[in-house]
Amino acid sequence: MIILFFKRALKDILNNRFLNVVTIITIALSILIVSAFILFFVNTSDIMNSWKKGIRLMVYLKPGVTEGKRLAIKYKIQTIGGVQDARFISKDEALERFKNQMKRQSSLLKNLKENPLPDAFEIRIIASSQDSEKIELLASQIEALPSVEEVEYGQLWLGRFTSIFNLFRLTGYTMGCIFFMATVFIVANTIRLVLYSRREEVEIMRLVGAADRFIKAPFYIEGLIQGALGGFIGLFVLFITFIYVSSRVEQGFSLNLLSIRFLSPGIIFLIILCSMFVGWLGCFLSLKQFFKV
Amino acid sequence: MIDENSKNLIIRMFHVHKNYGSKNAIIDITLDIPQNEFLFISGPSGAGKTTLLKLLYLGESVSKGQVLIDGMNLSRISRKRIPFLRRKFGIIFQDYKLIPSKTVFENVALVLEAKGIKKRLTQKKVRSILRVVGMEDRPDSFPPSLSGGEQQRVAIARAVAGDPKIILADEPTGSLDSESADIILDLLKRFHKRGATVIIATHSKELIHKTGGRLIYLKKGRLMKNT
């Protein structure tokens, strides 16, 4: 019986090509946009996580700090909750690092008479403390220590980026819901048009004793096929776009090479499933209304 | 207590009424139809002939009264059971009601597919029925390419494909020439001989006289004559 339903569904799709193509393209576009958002989140999360791993607090000391005081400060920093370790960077080491980074502009450093850079501690933070609020608290605790001049951790960009990321996430959810509803509506309308064009046939089937299940099953299969095809096409277009874009994006921020990746097979499978659900749901709503009469 | 006679009654109607708003289409009809009856329902246009047939297969539901079909009380039947009720019937319409996008073969096979009959058996049965109605040479034709008489023969084939107990025919020869009408009538007599109960709604006196059989006469929704 399932094979019969499947054959009827395929036949119906071929007989109503235009309507079905419109529906499949609509689903594909919705999947494309929603999947693009998901792809953005996935890669941004990866970047955020790798940046968080690389988050360092730089604790700049006041000039003239003795070794004894320096050791005491290091001890106090290491006992603060959230600190993984604290590494001392002398002003001389800092200047060497700076000179290496500024190799191409070395002429700027030629006339430098004395080292302007301070002694500092580079603090690494434990994973559970790597959010902007906790980092801020940690920084203020360290800043309160004696002989600490300043604490720096890129507060501006981290806070802004987190806000932008959250905004994108909210926008993604909202757009996802809107596209979901719009797509279900369009699929339901397509099926309604098909049912309307075949109302006489459906009526005849009911008169000869066909059960509702016998009449509805091919339509449900049609909806699932539309959803699956729409999902595959949307993801395929996204993949091609991804290949094109990623080959043009320069990689390598600071010392870490960042690699952007496509969606995992698990997420792809879920998206296809959701797409098929959208197709099925549109059919269900349309058939429910049609058979109520 | 059920008497011996009522066991053979395949259709029983008790004080049946059907209203469409303020219009009374069927008024207080009580009627018993035994198995293997050949029955004509006659009357002028608007008498309620088609409505009466619809009440039998639940194309419409009664406003008042009870209808029993082969022991099934239609007022107590659930929506899910309606397809099973309709499989007891083979219905023939004046306008044939064939699916134009399906071939002759597919139109007839639909009944058997709906019952879940396997493909091989369906094919065998459809070929056999098409032979009986004289349409074995046109299995791949589409209804719009057939004459009226040919279409009605296909409709009869579809109606009998599921071996129904009751054949309902609403003006089956209404749009046909006399030669085609005779062919249709012969086919209905043939299936009647095989054991089916045949009920024909018609205003054609010629058809009634040619066949004989029981006649009920409706006028303005009421049963005027039952012979």
Reported for the largest beta sheet of chain B, the result is: 6 strands, mixed
Radius of gyration of chain B: 17 Å
Strand neighbour order, sheet with most strands of chain B = 6-7-8-3-9-10
Mean pLDDT of chain B: 89
Radius of gyration of chain A, CA atoms, in whole angstroms: 30 Å
Proportion of β residues of chain A?
5-15%
Biggest sheet record of chain A: 4 strands, antiparallel
Beta percentage of chain B is 25-35%
Sequence stretches where pLDDT stays below 50 over 5 or more residues of chain B = none
Briefly note the structural class of the backbone of chain B: alpha/beta
Summarize the structure in words.
The complex is a heterodimer of chains A (about 290) and B (about 230). By secondary structure, chain A is an alpha+beta fold. Chain A is about 70% helix and about 10% strand. A 4-stranded antiparallel β-sheet of chain A has the order 2-3-1-4. In chain A, helix 2 (about 15-55) packs antiparallel against helix 7 (about 155-195) and helix 2 crosses helix 9. The two termini of chain A are about 25 Å apart. Helices cover about 35% and strands about 25% of the residues of chain B. In chain B, a hairpin with a 2-residue loop joins strand 4 and strand 5. Chain B has helices at about 5, 50-55, 80-85, 105-115, 120-130, 150-160, 180-195, 205-210; strands at about 10-20, 25-35, 40, 65-70, 70-75, 90, 165-170, 195-200, 215-220, 220-225. The model of chain B has no long low-confidence stretch (mean pLDDT about 90). Chain B is globular, with a radius of gyration of 17 Å. The two termini of chain B are about 25 Å apart. Chain B contains 8 helices and 10 strands. In chain B, the strands form 2 sheets. Chain B has a 6-stranded mixed β-sheet with strand order 6-7-8-3-9-10, sandwiched between helices. Chain B has a 4-stranded antiparallel β-sheet with strand order 2-1-4-5. Chain B has about 230 residues and is α/β, with parallel strands linked by helices. The interface of A and B includes residues 15, 200 and 208 of A.
